TrEMBL record:
Keywords annotated in UniProt: Cell cycle, Cell division, GTP-binding, Nucleotide-binding
The protein, known as: Cell division control protein
Family in the record: Belongs to the TRAFAC class TrmE-Era-EngA-EngB-Septin-like GTPase superfamily. Septin GTPase family.
PANTHER family: SEPTIN
Disordered: annotated segments: 315-337
Origin superkingdom: Eukaryota
Pfam families, A to Z: Septin
Length: 337
């Protein structure tokens, strides 16, 4: 049956819901939060600045050999509002200077995992408030760019350890940092190796297979999985190549154009993160990672309340017995890494 024309009296008008939602969405804007995890000097700041074509993050590295190496992983979020064709995004980039920079990196992931879980806890706390805000400020981490060192021969024990933990709490997108330091053959071998090791260690990186995906999504996600880990090159420099401005890196033998697909996967990564999967990254964070956190926290609270009720009930019967301290309901934001 064909739909009635917009000017017919039978036209009801609920098909305008998409425009109504769009107007509301445009007015409100949205939050997008990305965490960068990788050793110092892997090109984290440069890549993220290249992806958003804006200088958002300063390099946090040591500028001289005399500067002390950070002993712990720091968490340093920077928020900026970007606008494109009337759409506003409050973008938060969370840098993690000091990650993996020690000889002994045991536990260097703890502040990173804690930060991610703390954002889930803060959201849950705001959701459970008797008088909730109409719109909850979403600080949950929607994507983690994990930088693999191009000098390693595959996943190092630290990568395996960290990736296992990170993939449980957020959408992880692995990238091969500074891939211009590898030959094309080395890059192919490295990629294949990382793919095999991810499967071997059962590390599920984003995007995940979903029953709900239609044929088109399945094909798109499968082409993305072929590219993972994205071999990237970043640059904030515009270089003049025969009169054409090119965002690239100057090498002794010539210039690498970071947008050239034969040089790096930069364009694929950017399209994937911003043009095809931005909304999915936000949705999957809410429906998969946050939901898991929420369920486990609410279960814990329920169990503790039941213990308290049982203790109170037995307190009545055993009033004459020595008193024990009642179990405490933990603050829900006390998340463990
Ligand atoms: N060859 C090459 N060099 C890069 C690339 N990206 C960044 N660099 C250079 O590597 C150095 C470190 O880059 P940053 O972006 O500051 O690295 P970072 O990981 O943010 O470093 P920290 O802030 O110390 O954690 C700079 O000199 C960059 O110009 C790349 O893709 N290829």
């Amino acid at each position: 049956m064909s739909a009635p024309a917009n000017d017919s009296q039978d036209y009801v008008g609920f098909d305008t819901i998409t425009q109504q939602m769009e107007r509301k969405f445009l007015k409100r804007g949205f939050n997008f939060n990305v965490i960068l995890v990788g050793e110092s000097g892997m090109g984290k700041s440069t890549l993220v600045n290249s992806i958003f074509s804006s200088h958002l993050v300063d390099s946090q590295g040591r500028r001289t050999a005399q500067e002390v190496i950070r002993k712990t992983t720091e968490i340093s979020p920077v928020t900026q509002t970007l606008e494109e064709n009337g759409v506003r995004v409050r973008l938060t980039i969370i840098d993690t200077p000091g990650f993996g920079d020690q000889c002994n990196n045991e536990g260097c992931w703890v502040p990173v995992i804690k930060y991610i879980k703390d954002q889930h806890a803060a959201y849950l706390e705001r959701e459970l408030k008797p008088q909730r805000d109409r719109v909850i400020n979403d600080t949950r981490v929607h994507a983690c760019l994990y930088f693999l060192n191009p000098g390693s021969r595959g996943l190092r024990p630290l990568d395996v350890e960290v990736l296992k933990r990170l993939t449980e709490v957020t959408n992880v997108i692995p990238v091969i940092a500074k891939s211009d330091s590898m030959t094309v053959e080395e890059r192919t071998v490295f990629k294949r190796r990382i793919k095999e090791e991810l499967v071997f260690h059962r590390i599920a990186v984003y995007p995940y297979p979903s029953e709900e995906d239609g044929e088109e999504d399945r094909l798109l996600n499968s082409s993305i999985r072929d590219l993972v880990p994205f071999a990237v090159v970043g640059s904030e420099e515009i270089i003049d190549v025969n009169g054409t401005p090119v965002r690239g890196r100057r090498h002794g033998w010539g210039v690498i154009n970071i947008f050239d697909e034969t040089h790096s996967d930069f364009v694929h990564l950017r399209n994937f993160m911003l043009r095809t999967h931005l909304s999915d990254l936000i949705e999957v964070t809410s429906q998969r990672h946050y939901e898991q956190f929420r369920t486990s926290q609410l279960r814990q609270i329920k169990e503790l309340r039941a213990q308290q009720a049982a203790a109170a009930a037995s307190g009545g019967i055993m009033a004459s017995m020595p008193q024990q301290a009642p179990p405490q309901v933990p603050a829900i934001h006390q998340s463990m890494a």
